[in-house]
Amino acid sequence: MIEVVKSSQSGNGSCSLCRVVLPDGATSVVGVDDGVTVRRLVDRLLQRRNLPCASYDVLVRDALVDCGAPSSALGGREARVERRVVLRVSVGSRAVAVRCRPARRLRHVLRPVLQRYLPAARAPAALLAGAPLHPDTPVAELDGARIRVVETAAAPELALDAADDDGDSLSDVALRLQDDCDDSQSQSASRSSVSSTSSVSESGRVRAALRAGPPLHHHPPDFLDNLRETQKQRLQPRTPPPLPPKPAQRAAPTVV
Fold first, then answer.
1. Which of 64, 197, 214, 215 is deepest in the core (most CB within 10 A)?
2. Closest of 60, 105, 110 to residue 90, by C-alpha
3. pLDDT band at 154, cuts 50/70/90?
4. pLDDT value of residue 171
């Protein structure tokens, strides 16, 4: 029984199990190993659940985990996988990669891009394959799409800078602006919501980081202890139930 409890621990005493919460809400307790990266571990679970997720973030207690780190860093912890949407936006001569949560609307996702690259634009609009997009389109429907931002005077309701009555929708978004002087062929992929590259020698990058919000799923922090105790109880020898008492012997009937 002691060996069962120790089987979930590695040689140095650290836990070799972790719980992973997938984007569809499913949970799985898997083993971790120094030779397996976090990305490889998550990709296996997504493939097993048949969940297509090209871009995602792995968080432990609302802290971002490096997907290239060994999966042993998740030992004894609960990791949450959150889906991310990637858009490719053309703003003038710049190509901007926007990375955000699927629940965001297009106007909110492109707002930091417009503030950075088109601060004086009049009635900017988003086009997809030449057709205008409504500013309130959920970005979950545009994953991987190439969007072009242009200035237009027609259809003011399609302008990205139109008045928005959803004042609290950006309360959980924090903006960070950074300048990057890398050449146009370098592209960065990070947790920031916006990373950009330019065709000229100087390029800029806009990042929109999300504040930590309430967890989508609540799980007890001592789930590994409960798992070990359950395994321990299952492997304990069970005492068979007592046999029912034998019926009292009856006297043989008398034949007259």
1. 197
2. 110
3. low
4. 35
The contacts of residue 231 (CB under 8 Å, 6+ apart) are 4, 5
Residue owning tokens 């916006």: 194
Cβ atoms < 10 Å from Cβ of 94: 19
CB 57 within 8 A of CB 99: no
Task: Please check whether residue 125 is in contact with residue 90, taking contact to mean a CB–CB distance below 8 angstroms.
Answer: no
What ranges do the domains of the chain cover?
Answer: 2-83, 85-210
Answering whether pTM is above 0.85, one says no
Tell me if residue 256 falls in helix, strand or coil.
coil
Q: Give per-residue pLDDT as tens, 62-90.
A: 788 888 888 888 888 888 888 888 878 87
CATH C-level class of 2-83? alpha beta
| pLDDT per residue as tens digits for the range 7-19 | 455 555 556 788 8
Strand order in the sheet with 146-151: 131-132, 124-128, 146-151, 85-91, 94-100, 194-198
As assigned by CATH, the class of the 85-210 domain is alpha beta
Per-residue pLDDT for 47 more than 80?
Answer: yes
